[in-house]
């Protein structure tokens, strides 16, 4: 029982300390808050609204873009455990400026500008204690930004008027956003290709291990053929260089990693042993 409790408690303690010291916990809660906001926004789909998450028109993305009969909205989600402190108040002002900049960027984006759509900035706040605010403080306008408490988001969304945008504007904006995201996803897939299945991941790992074993065998054959450690290491370095050139290629990356590790790691071990022997031999 003691050993079992230790094996369970130790990893849990390490996990908690890691989240606290690295600041991972607030990031995780921020992601969770974005999912809460997205869930509430998706409820408007029954009324002809459309929502898309993580719209990247520059390095930083827009958390949510909402388009429907009542207009277009750039929505930013923020979470904090201490909104009543000076840090929380600064975070509110930071979020207001961020969502204003996002709405301005979205307004100047050519497809929406061509459709004469002016997105409105909205900041959604999540965290403990916000549900206790007065009704007038749960939804307020600060610097032309609508600031909504998470618990008041659903009633506020129900109060949005219709007739602001035509069906042509809605469909045009949605098509432009979808086309933009499809292009971004294709670029991300080309730059950061991931395995499509567990079988493919296992196949890639097996391929890397196989080329690593082949590299080790090749290093042994070179050493047996040359009978010279300096010449062997020189040839190993020369054969490893092409692998470094192939690593950026998604097609050859795993084979290059395996070949480079199979040649490079044993060569480094041989070089270290030679250096140790060179240093220790005079002493002995």
Q: What are its keywords?
A:
284 residues; alpha/beta; Trna Endonuclease, Chain: A, domain 1; 2 domains; six-stranded mixed β-sheet; 13% strand
What features would you describe in this structure?
It contains 10 helices and 6 strands. The chain is α/β, with parallel strands linked by helices. It folds into 2 domains: about 35-190, 3-Layer(aba) Sandwich (Trna Endonuclease, Chain: A, domain 1); about 200-284, no CATH class. Strands 1-2-3-4-6-5 form a 6-stranded mixed sheet. Helix 8 packs antiparallel against helix 9, helix 8 crosses helix 10 (about 255-284) and helix 9 runs antiparallel to helix 10 (about 255-284). The radius of gyration is 29 Å and the shape is elongated. The model has no long low-confidence stretch (mean pLDDT about 80).
Q: Order of strands in the sheet with the most strands? A: 1-2-3-4-6-5
Structural class: alpha/beta
- Main sheet attributes: strand count, strand direction, barrel closure: 6 strands, mixed
Number of helices: 10
Order of secondary-structure elements: HHEEEHHEHEEHHHHH
Number of domains: 2
Alpha carbon gap, first and last residue: 52 Å
Radius of gyration: 29 Å
Number of strands: 6
Q: What is the CATH topology of the largest domain?
A: Trna Endonuclease, Chain: A, domain 1
Helix fraction by DSSP (H/I, runs of at least 4): 55-70%
Domain NERD: 29-125
Transmembrane segments: 201-219, 231-250, 256-280
GO molecular function: pentosyltransferase activity
Organism: Intrasporangium chromatireducens Q5-1
């Amino acid at each position: 029982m003691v050993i079992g409790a230790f094996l369970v408690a130790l990893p849990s303690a390490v996990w908690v300390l890691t989240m606290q010291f690295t600041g991972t916990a607030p990031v995780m809660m921020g992601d969770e808050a974005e999912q809460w906001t997205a869930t509430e926004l998706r409820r408007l789909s029954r009324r002809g609204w459309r929502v898309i998450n993580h719209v990247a028109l520059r390095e930083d993305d827009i958390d949510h873009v909402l388009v429907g009969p009542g207009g277009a909205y750039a929505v930013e989600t923020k979470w904090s455990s201490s909104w009543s402190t000076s840090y929380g108040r600064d975070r509110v002002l930071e979020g207001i400026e961020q969502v204003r900049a996002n709405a301005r960027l979205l307004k100047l984006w050519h497809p929406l500008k061509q459709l004469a759509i002016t997105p409105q900035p909205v900041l959604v706040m999540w965290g403990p204690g916000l549900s206790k605010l007065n009704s007038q403080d749960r939804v307020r306008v600060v610097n032309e930004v609508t600031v909504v408490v998470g618990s008041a988001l659903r009633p506020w969304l129900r109060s949005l008027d219709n007739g602001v945008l035509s069906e042509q504007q809605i469909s045009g904006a949605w098509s432009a956003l979808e086309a933009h995201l499809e292009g971004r996803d294709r670029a991300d897939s080309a730059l950061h290709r991931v395995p499509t299945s567990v079988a493919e991941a296992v196949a890639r790992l097996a391929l890397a291990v196989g080329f690593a074993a082949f590299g080790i065998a090749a290093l042994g054959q070179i050493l047996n053929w040359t009978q010279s450690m300096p010449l062997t290491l020189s040839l190993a370095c020369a054969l490893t260089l092409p692998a470094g050139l192939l690593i950026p290629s998604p097609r050859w990356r795993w084979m290059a990693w395996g070949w480079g590790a199979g040649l490079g790691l044993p060569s480094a071990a041989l070089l270290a042993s030679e250096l140790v022997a060179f240093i220790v031999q005079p002493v002995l």
